[in-house]
Each structure stands twice: as C-alpha cells, then as structure tokens.
Amino acid sequence: MFGGIMLFSKFFAPTSRDVPADAKIVSHRLMLRSGMISQTASGIYCWLPLAVRVLDKISQIICDEQDGIGANRVLFTTIQPADLWIESGRYDAYGKEMLRIKDRKEGNFLYSPTNEEQATDVFRKYVKSYRGLPTMLYQIHWKFRDEIRPRFGVMRGREFLMKDGYSFDIDFESAKRTYDNVFKSYIRIFRRIGLTPIPVQADSGAIGGNMSHEFQILAETGESTLYYDKKLLTSSDDELMTTFAVTDEKYDPKESAVHEKDLQISKGIEVGHVFYFGTKYSKAMNTFVLDEKGEKVFPEMGSYGIGVSRLVAAIIEASHDDRGIIWPEAVAPFDVVILNLHVKNSKCCDAASEIYGAISSRKEVLYDDRDITVGEKLADADLIGIPWQIIIGKNKIESEIVELKNRKTGEAIEISRSEVIGRFVR
Ligand code: ATP
Ligand code: MG
C-alpha cells in the first residue's frame, strides 16, 4: 500500500453533530454525519472524499480477486440503446425500474440497470470460436434502478455502484467451474473487507436449470431473514461452498437439516449475487461460437454482482458503536489520523510534523490540523472511524510522549514519538 498525507483543514469532510431526523438506520445517519454523502434527490447521492476513498479500497480488493480468477475488467456504458433489450426480450418485461431516455433524434435509450445484453453483444462481435472460451468480462460502474421505495441511504439507492461480471463457457461443466471460482473469489473478497459472508441458496441448483446464490452480511437492519446453522459463521471457505442459509420464503422446519439447537435466525443484507442462467441470453441474441467440429454452440452464461456502494453502508451496519464508524483496516479511508489538540502550540506542531513526515511514506495519514476544540476533534475522530488515532496533547509533550488509540477497542497507550513511528514504519 502507498502512503500519503492529507490535512483535515483542506479535506472536504463536512462532519456534523446533528442527527438527521429522516435517516432511519445507523449507517445512513453516520454517513451523513461524517460527511461521506450528500443527498441530491430521492435515492441519489453525491459521494464525498471519505466515501470515495472507501469505494476505491473496496473496488481494489474486488479487482484484485477478480483479476486473480482470470476475469477481464472493462467499462460497459451507462447509457444503452433500447434495441439490445428488445432483442433479449427484456425491454418491456423490466418495467418501471428502468429509466428510459430519448435522444435528440427520438432514439430510445436507457440508463443501465444491469448489463447482460451489452456483455453478450460485445462478446458476439469478437468471439467466434470455442478457442475464445471460457471468457469473463467485469466492470465496476454506476447503475440506475428506479426503485419503488429507495430507502436507508445508499443501502437501497436508485443510482448505485455495482461490480457486475458476465461469463461465457462452452458447456455446463465448464460454466459450473466458472461459477464455483466466482463463488470462492466472492468469499475471499468479503473476508478481505473484514466481513463474514453468509451464502444463501437462492435457487434449486438443478443441473441444466438456473443456479443462484446470494451473499449476505448479518445486521439487525437487514431486509432479509436468514435461517442457518450457526457453524456457518465459523466455516472454512470450502465448507461455505456446500452449506448455505435459506431465506424466510424457503425455510421449512420439517425439511430443515439443521439441528434445532444449532439453528440461527438473523437479519441479513444482500451484498452479492451469483447467477447461472445457461443459454437464456446467448440464444435470444443469436450469440454462438463454432466448436471443434464447426458446429454452432450457444455459450452457457452467468452473471455476478456485488453491491459496491451498498457495501459501504453494510460495513458500517456491521461495525460501529455509539460514537461512530469503526472501519475495518482493509477498507478504512485512512490508516491513521493524527490529532494535534493544540495547533497553536509549536511543540505539538513539531511533534505532529515529525510523526506524519515519517509514517506517511508507508501509511495513509489524515492530519487533523484544524483549529477547533479538543472535544470536537476527539469526537470527529471517533465519528469518522479511522482505525488508529495518534493524539498529541500538551501535557506530556515535553517528555516526547503521545497517545496511541485503537478506535475499535478504545484501548489507548502512552508511547514515545519514536516508538509510535516504529509501530507504523517497519
Ligand atoms: P435486491 O433484492 O436487494 O433488490 P437485486 O436482487 O435486485 O437486489 P442484483 O440485481 O442481483 O440485486 O444486483 C447485484 C447487487 O447489487 C445486489 O446483491 C446488491 O448488493 C446490489 N444492489 C441491488 N439493488 C441495489 C440498490 N437499489 N441500491 C444499492 N445496491 C443495490
Ligand atoms: Mg432489486
């Protein structure tokens, strides 16, 4: 990871102590109060610098794991011609969630709610032979769905950032391998972010039919109710490939294999979805390759989503206290915040400069150099939730002592300047 320093006085993070009245869940309140998002219309938000840094961290982890399984990153478009959706048969079926647009020549367009058609169209233009399979394209891009009830801030927005991937395989066996590879990479992604993913069986998994799993994160404010064996919470990656939770609609106590004493019922937030749908789009869009014998084969397809912007809220739901956000280290907007409690005291300023000068070569540092009260400064640091706080006060400054506080545990130790530098620069 590369380091860097940002001065809070120059950083656009408009924090606030006001509790927003219409924000019903904690992540929405904390994202507004910490100056991460600014609402522009119902379900449509501007993302401010703290939030952009978190989106970037999440995206980086996703790209790393997707590239690792051989997926190719692209950027499809946010605006698509209606023709592609007429061809697949989804233009009318998609209904009011789709934002339909006309250009100046009265041509019909739409803002992408998802990109199966477009991925298929790109594929068919270039891949003509079985040698081009398997192939997988993915992007991290904005979507628009005109949700009936946008709510909970960015959790269910109308404009939102999604990672969406599309795979093409020659037959079911190969498609199943791809599906399993994406499944495993999703587990790694959520674990690297610092979350405990719960796979949920969303479809029967019958050979030849559709196959679908969701990934859920436990949180009291989740919209789904999950039924699962408590061992899922401590399962290995491999075990998660074969043991799943089910949602309320699917739960039947008579059929449940789970022992009553091991059964857990909790609310969950859907953060990812993997889907195998066979030749649905390749057939509808006349997309085929030639096999070894020169015969037409319609590729077996899957699509794979992660709600990148929803994850920001889901992480906060899973990790906060009454003072604010507690970012997992892997996705924190900064690694360390330096709190200079007395910006008019030259000794405190010297200590701060020395410390950020040394650790910013390795860590991303926010230096709170603002001339505000001690109470406000400490409260803001807890609110924005950077994992480590280096607090420079005037009491011990003569003996070169500062305080190092862990945001998550609240544990604070007194430590010398050189020791604190040594902790972060190794
Ligand atoms: P939901 O049941 O929550 O509406 P979905 O089944 O419509 O989700 P997909 O089409 O599978 O969602 O999209 C992939 C991922 O995108 C979802 O798992 C979710 O994390 C995210 N997502 C979907 N709709 C929204 C939204 N309105 N706001 C934010 N994220 C969303
Ligand atoms: Mg939906």
Task: Characterize the structure shown.
The protein folds into 2 domains: 36-72 and 114-321, BirA Bifunctional Protein, domain 2; 334-425, Anticodon-binding domain (Rossmann fold), CATH 3.40.50. Strands 4, 8, 9, 10, 11, 12, 13, 14 and 17 form a 9-stranded mixed sheet that branches. A 6-stranded mixed sheet has the order 1-21-20-22-23-24, sandwiched between helices. It has a 3-stranded antiparallel sheet with strand order 5-7-6. By secondary structure, the chain is α+β, with helices and mostly antiparallel strands. Helix 1 packs across helix 8 (308-318). A hairpin with a 5-residue loop joins strand 23 (401-406) and strand 24. It has helices at 26-33, 49-68, 82-88, 90-93, 116-126, 172-193, 280-284, 308-318, 346-359, 374-384, 417-424, and strands at 4-7, 37-41, 44-47, 72-73, 79-81, 99-102, 108-111, 135-144, 159-169, 198-201, 211-218, 224-229, 246-247, 263-278, 289-290, 296-297, 300-307, 320-321, 324-325, 336-340, 364-368, 388-392, 401-406, 412-416. The model has no long low-confidence stretch (mean pLDDT 95). The structure holds adenosine-5'-triphosphate and magnesium ion. Adenosine-5'-triphosphate is lined by residues 114, 145, 147, 156-157, 160, 162, 270-273, 305, 307, 309-310.
Q: Nutshell version of this structure?
A:
With 426 residues, the chain is of the alpha+beta class. Helices cover 28% and strands 29% of the residues.
